[in-house]
Amino acid sequence: MSHPYIPNAVPAVKAAMLEAIGLSSTEELYRAIPAALRMDRPLDLPAPARSEAELLRHVRGILARNVSTQDTLSFLGGGTFPHHVPAVVDEVINRGEFLTAYAGEPYEDHGRFQALFEYCSQMAELLELDVVNVPVYDGFQAAATALRMAGRLTGRRDVVTVGAIGADKRSRIDDYVAGALDIVAIPPARNGTIDRAAVRAVIDENVAAIYVETPDYHGVLHTEIAALADMAHDVGAELVVSCDPISLGVVASPATLGADIVCGDIQSLGVHQWFGGGHGGYIAVRDDPRYVMELPSRLFGIAATTVPGEYGFGDVAYERTSFAVREEGKEWVGTAAALWGIAAAVYLSLMGPAGMSEVGETILAHTRYAIKGLAGVPGLAVPSEHAPHFREFVVDVSETGRNTADWIATGRSVGIEPGIALDAARLLVCVTEIHSKADIDRLTELFAAPPHPARHGSAAAVTAAVAAVAAAATPAATEGSAR
Amino acid sequence: MTRLPVAPKPPLRRFHQARWDEPIVFELSTPGSRGIGVPEVDPAIGATIGDDATLPAAIRRENPPALPELAQPQVLRHYVRLSQENLGADFNIDVGQGTCTMKYSPKVNEVVIRDPRLYDTHPCQDPATAQGTLEIVHRLERMLAEISGMDAVSVQPAAGSAAIWANVSMIRAYHASRGEGEQRDEIITTIFSHPSNAACAKTAGYKVITLHPDEHGYPDLAALRAALSDRTAALLITNPEDTGIYNPRIAEFVAAVHEVGGLACYDQANANGILGITRARDAGFDLCHFNLHKTFSTPHACGGPAAGACGVTEALEPFLPGPVVVRDDDGTYRLDADRPQSIGKVSPFYGVIPNIVRAYTWIMTMGAEGLREVAEIAALNNNYLAQKILQIPGASMGYPETDARIEQIRYTWQELTEQTGISTEQIGWRAADFGVHYWSSHHPFVIPEPFTLEPTESYSRGELDEYAAIIAEVAREAREDPETVRTAPHRSTVHLTGHEDFDDPARWAVTWRAYLRKYPGAGVRS
What we know:
The complex is a heterodimer. By secondary structure, chain A is of the alpha/beta class. Chain A is 36% helix and 12% strand. Chain A has helices at 11-20, 52-63, 87-93, 96-99, 110-127, 139-154, 167-177, 196-202, 225-234, 289-292, 322-325, 338-375, 404-413, 437-448, 461-473, and strands spanning 73-74, 131-132, 158-162, 182-186, 207-213, 238-242, 261-265, 281-285, 300-304, 311-315, 392-396, 416-417, 420-421, 426-430. By secondary structure, chain B is an alpha/beta fold. Chain B has a domain at 112-364: Type I PLP-dependent aspartate aminotransferase-like (Major domain) (Aspartate Aminotransferase, domain 2). The chains are: A alpha/beta, B alpha/beta.
């Protein structure tokens, strides 16, 4: 059978095409490649599936070893969040017209330009800033680039980070700014708040930026943003704030509190969890060319066409980019996360101002309810209990006589993922709008009345069930390594 | 006239792109409309927490965001209309976007990934409940190791340029580990390698040296030798380059870099024509990267999400992004984060999972034989299309005397432009009227008035003939009816768009709110 994805593999067609170009075999197409560099054997790869039915059996056999968070009760966040994804979002972004389009030119892919312009425009309303970029890879990249922008804007090297930042994100930032910026981290106080004096002590004329997240990695909404802005501006530094846009129906936008560059991740706005593989990043600034010209990403502008009443689009300030001027551009630009931007556009259009306000209120209430419930369990403490939180908070389990790994194993034994272990004592717990009161009560109950120790320590219920399913479903083709 | 039989089709289809004349979503707003409901706070929760969830005034938003308000059918209709104003690879002969490998993204791969066991899984859940995903990551990495010949692969980078960055970062870490980090401060690349090679190197702090081609279009070995020194950290090079020319002396380039203690890093964005034919490792490379959204079929998605893969030799393996997925002897997959020399994270968690699964699934439909057929047919299609394009008066290819293009060709309209004044950009605008993509090339235009075609393996002979006929027709118009080309597009979604406002800070408008602020009264519908 000629391969169904390769139309010209049909022998007669291939022969006719070779003849048309005066060759007798495809081998001659490779005459430029020296014999010493040619493979003298076939690639050593698994035998392919010959049909869709066999392919699906094979891949689904592997996926049978996964369990969806729909089938457990998950309180996992830490950067990838279980928010509701509206059906219309999936309908739009799965359309072949969007899914399979290249990042094309305005006359071929006008719809993509308008959809992304609308993404940027709706983000701009949430953020109350006039310039938002076409998405970068993720919130990690957005933060790292925002800091390098601050470095270029100020001609300085020092960055002061304030509050809790995830270790993975910090790793990404460290890799990205190495050699260009030096980071001093001021961790949060145990009660979650920012120690202004500690920040002030390290702020001087060498500081390019103060960086803070709100909510931060521990879910704390910082009330000191305006004060940090003043501290930064007093020494000529930029205030860079990372925030999750899903909070902005209820939380003041960082720009109104004095932030100069705002950045973050858009996974919350209509992108599934994808095992942490569904991220896009935004960077927003005022419509000031000094800031705009430091953005590496593409910016889509609205324009007039030769027809009155028709909207055209194109690239704004393209000469900033590495596409235009290679290493003379700002950092680099490439294929990143456009479709997730379109997902976020659809999400925000569905939600509107009232939806964003409601989802924010619900998350605030669920977070507070979960904090209250867990803080009330003997042995548990929520050290930052009195700080405002959005979606996440840290529970200290050290007075329970068990460590976090133990609690996680206990939870898993009854189908609950209680949180992410930050260390042996601290668990990061996430609740969103999708959790019900009963869900949160089950979490509290897990700690208040843990399942009998006899069950804990034996094979975890979920794990055992999965293993059983997988053993039955996995075909022989998945055995052995890839090679 | 309206009786059967129907007349034969004309030689070129009478295409017209969807033109919905769609307003901006804000203009569709009706106050009070809602597109979706949100779970409300349970009264029992409200009673328990009282006012405790109320935010301090200092951080409470005062005014609701000025988002549009639409009911659900109107949101759907608006965005579906915008989707129709796009030329997806699902329905256009997408060979005009050279270097980008616009191939068929199989639908069965979409069926595979639209599974809650992928999209509704969390990276921190019990690894025992994520064995399927970890296995696919591991299997794909081993497959790509075989395809490149490299010892170890990471699919963590989010895209091609992110993979270039990860490679540059590993190069930096490698030299630093040997105490040569400060000394080796130069990276060499070529002008026909993707701009991100130069740009990532510069962002990482390197001085960038760009080699220009010799008179045959090959990277200049003498220029490389002149540039090499004990300051050389690495050579970042594509092969075949964006001209489609394969550099037969590539192993000599790599050896010369090694002689001065530098590393050789292969940008394999153009790998589609050489799968199973020749490998990065066979030419001596230390690092390479693939774009899973090019060579390995994952859809381009209007510009991402994409996925990248970095391949390295054993010597560079300790520096790979972490954690890495490892397979224990009992067949269990786990994450190994104990990697002290790793450059750390280049993406959140483990990479773009949907595309990793799509790429794995695609390779599992191809196998070794299929991959080689992909390469051979991609090269055949390219050379077949070339023979058609080169018959068009005014079209030629860069470095015409240099033989044997692999999977793409950078052509030039220099002669046509000199004769008609019509530029490659204008030809692209007119090509849109026929329902196809067309792209010039990356800047700078080393080859004048360039265009770059890459037909991949996915297009039939008839489709290649049709694409060539479209280009021939536009070239004919350039001579015989240049006004039609100059005022194009005519049958696209929109008409010729002014670019004058895009570079003026006082006039550009990147968002609707900026537009309304700068142009008071605009956007109000009569």
